Amino acid sequence: MSGIRRRDVLAGTAFVLADIELARGAIISGQLPWQPDKEDTPRTAKPGAWKFFTADEAVMMAVLADRIIPPDPDTPGGNDAGCVVFIDRQLAGPYGLYEGLYERPPFIKGTLQQGPQSAQTPATLYRLGIAALERYCSRPDGRAKGKPLASLQAPEQDAILEGLEDGSVELEGVDGKTFFQQVVKDVQQGFFADPIYGGNRDMCAWKMIGFPGARYDYREWVGRHNERYPHPPVSIGGRIEWTPRKS
Amino acid sequence: MRSGLKSIAQLIALVTLAGCGRPVAAESPTTEAVASAQQPPQAAQEPALVDRGRYLTEAADCAACHTDPRSGKPFAGGRPIQTPFGTVVAANITPDRKTGIGTWSDKQFDDAVRHGRMPDGMLYPAMPYPYYTRMSRDDVLAIRAYLRTLTPVENAVHSNQLPFPFSIRAMMHVWDGLYFNDKPYAPDPSKSALWNRGAYLVQGAGHCGACHTPKNFLGGDKARQAFQGYTLQGWFAPNITNDEARGLGKWSVEDIASYLKTGHNRLAAASGMMGEEVALASSRMTDPDLQAIATYLKDQPGQSPPNAAPVNAMSMKAGKAIYEDLCSACHAPDGRGVPYLIPNLAESSSVASRDDTSIVRVVVHGSESVATDKEPTGPAMPAFGWQLNDDQIAAVATYIRNSWGHAASPVTAAEVSKARKP
Amino acid sequence: MANPLPHRDAVIIGLGWTGSILAYELADAGLDVIAIERGPWRNSATDYAPNYAQDELRYRIRHELFLRPAQTTFTFRNKMSETALPIRNWGSFMPPNGVGGGGVHWNGETWRFLPSDFILRTHLTKRYGARFLPHDMTIQDWGVTYQELEPHYDRFEYLCGTSGTAGNLQGQIRDGGNPFEGPRSREYPNPAQPQPFSHTLFAKAARELGYKPFPQPSGNMSRAYENPLGVRLGPCTYCGFCEWFGCANYSKSSPQTTILPALVRKRNFQARDNCEVTRINLDPSGKRATGVTFVDQSGTEWEQPADLVVLCAYTIFNVQLLMLSNIGQRYDPESNQGVIGRNFSHQTISDVTSFFDRTKFTFNPFISSGAIGMCIDEFNGDNFDHGPHGFVGGGYMGQVQTNGRPIETTPVPPGTPAWGAQWKQAVRDNYQCATKPGTGVHGSMYSYRDVYLDLDPTYRDRFGRPLVRITMDFHDNEIRQNRFLTDKFAEIFKAMGALQTVKEYRKAPYDATKYQTTHLCGGAIMGSDPRTSALNRYLQSWDVPNLFVMGASAFPQNAGYNPTGTVAALAYWSAQAIRSQYLQNPGPLVHA
Fold this sequence. Notes:
The structure holds three protein chains of three kinds. Chain B is mainly alpha-helical. Chain B is about 40% helix and about 5% strand. Chain B has helices at about 5-15, 30-40, 45-60, 60-65, 105-115, 130, 135-150, 170-180, 195-205, 210, 255-260, 270-280, 285-300, 315-330, 355-365, 390-400, 415-420; strands at about 80-85, 85-90, 115-120, 120, 160, 230, 235, 365-370, 380. In chain B, about 50% of the residues are buried. Chains A and C meet through helix 1, strand 1, helix 5, helix 6 and helix 7 of A and helix 2, helix 3, strand 5, strand 11 and helix 12 of C.
């Protein structure tokens, strides 16, 4: 026999099954399986205390978020838009643990085309990266001249981040470029994702570009060429007009 | 489930009326037992009779109660039926001699189905004998002949699980005296044969009034409001008279027949308990019979036009926003849905029913429409209860009930909150 | 020890498009059919309802509907000289997970291949001479012709309600359709979808350049539709959440919206979900399949005996199962012997992003559908003279932009910083006036001696079975093809009025981290010669006559089109052979 071990099977599929309330392995016949209230609804970010970041890490993240997406008169910056909350909730969930990654050894560094060959999770990368960046800033001979990142002026902060990006600022114990690219990606994703995930507060990013969000019916607009779509965006969590109130 | 106060009122009513009961002609049980013991075994029945009996069993939808979907054993009973008075469990009507009706004579069977009397006590009208009484004796005996061909299943069922005092079967003498019009169907010579066949089916085997006719607090039909809708088991079975605003006024005979046959027509889809009815009963009926039913229903007078309900502008505005954002991708911006796939809300009278139980339930919990061989798609409406709060669901339901020419009572947040409970 | 189950006439491995088609056909023929699907059952109403399906983060970025590499993956290397390493996170392609397979999340792009595609080696040799082809290009004729497949293409299109405009009706070239397509017997079942602004502008520019643009054949319904099985679809609402997502309002063709509701009602059909087939079992002769072994969610092994086995598990998984079940001779690139794993291919994709005047153009990119788009086919297949160019093959190109979803589709001009105030401003300024087609140039990838599949010597799946090893790189032919096509593509955007066009040529080496469609093909190819093919022209295994293998694994090389239409047509073609010939007389249908 092929020597299949039950626990290996379960280990490989557990995360798949955990997501699916209607997990079945029984025979399906006669009719389509359906039950009321069994939709696979999204796991939203609930407001409240940090689930992943420490208070200090959150301070550093707020700086990063606001440099990656600076505030301006029309649109909030990354921090105010909730991007740090977004990342916090994501890192505390399956994304942080990189659930689904193939994690079997051996881990051998390959070509760029073969893709990342480490089992390092985003959660680990953030822990190491934030700590390493703090340590870098505390060095008197670094660009922060020994001062914490949050206390620097914006151009000085940017100089450090640009250094991470081009490799001229090196971090200890973690690849600064990889770390910074991850943060840029996550901040920007949090900015544009549905507000139910903690970022894009009040759909500010969608309003910035004119993306109508979770709307699902544009039939009346397909033929209206070169006409700006006028309706406000909607989130999966709705919009303020959904709630009856005296206008 | 009725509240405690209502139960007490019902008890008092029944006890008070106990003295006014109609005398019942008592049959000697001994005579019956002798009669049944002397009957020859029904080994070789006419195939045509059995087939007619099978058809009528399906039309009367016996399986809906008497086949427990959990066990799947046909007609072996065990399915609990929720009534406003408590739970009754459907009996085992397979030919099993110990736990089924194998020892019953034809007369005993007919007495049960058309007169509400079992050998050992009265039946509760959860078994719809007040409707089956309209059937002919021949039809009921054909059903008996079919049931005799079933595999006997040993399944002892304790039917009476009602709380005291409703558990006293003898009270049904009183109830029957008030509400049981024990007469078979009498054709109306002024109407067509098709109409009469429809009336016979609707009033009898179809027992449509069991769900669709309003009832008083003791569970008796409000005969003058026949087919004008009734709330049961978390659904409002809608008005199926020809009323334009509230009933089937916008449906043609073909629409009704299609709905009954396939579960779907250009305007609506059957789901919930009616979906089950279609799957088990009307989808198996002949086209002429369905035409007959439709013809009869289209001739039932509707209610007087509803009063325009005062509508809260705040709710309508919010409801409109929700409708446009969430509902229109399936139900269309103009509310007309997609024929045979997504119900047409704009031309639906049931969304504007006097009772909003169904629309609230469907929005909160979702619902799957029935799939039949002719219409296998069976699209489902998802649940919105997890996404919208009580005020929001109340707003969008109110909006739907008062748009596109509808005028119906607003939905309250309290009603939505109640509907969330399983 | 596997627990035995009651015998069935037919067992179907995988319940995606081909699994659903074959299950229906065999059940309709009266067989007792069981389908075994590795992933979960998927239903429109429960898995992608219209109040949460439109979630870019969840479905496009986190890929919730897709397989997880932890469950199974492949190893990859460009060259035979390298060590293959696991694809630890998906990149260049992304296998689906669950009933419906790729049919749940695809765009609905429903193309037919060209008549010349099916006789490729013969055709190209005749036109250009054998020496025009690279010496290590291993393209082959399919063993079946377009004419033979035409009724089956038609059948699939009518099953799906495909929306389009015919370009060649029984030999008559029709305005507004694709003038290069093979003759079709009748019009599409639904008219083409109306096109949004940028797609319409592209067509206008293409016409002005002398091309003949036409609407992409679309599996998104242009109107409500009832298919021949009585299953109904609704009209597409241009939500812009198509590929990567399930369709929430029944308007995208998928097994769920076209076959499964009718299939489940057949009393002789059953399905198991969350059960993975691990092996096709053979009798001692090795020439007859006796059924399959599968593992359920709890890890228990079962054996499903059957007289007929139909393998419908997707390209690479088909090949893996054949290898692990010791069916057919494995391909060895050194000796050029063997067939299982031979002729593996993907697609040659590139894109052109263009930036327009903000004050003059408002594209509303979020108004779109999966298979929307205006395309030209002048540079596909052998539709043009390749003589001067020194390459073969080609592809369609078009403004086929499906979305304006902001995480994915907020293009900024080259030179814009990746973050900061300038980035933010550039996003703001360009969202409404940029075009980003996505798979704008959809080119063929022909097959080569050193592009193949075999089993990895090191890495294993959770059952301890070897992973499939992919050895793949681009060859010069495809790189040159792509450069030529991408340049032509960019010209059309210039003619549209773009201020700036940014070409992203497809470059070697093949990069397993950059998404380029999941159109993997080959590895268990069909053909006329059992020495160079795994299957005969009816997709019947040459080695095991009661085994049929569906899917793009049968393609000897990939053409310049999305494969699903051809995958389905072959499935219907094979099903017809099974029903009309094989069942009456089980045994090899072709004697080579």
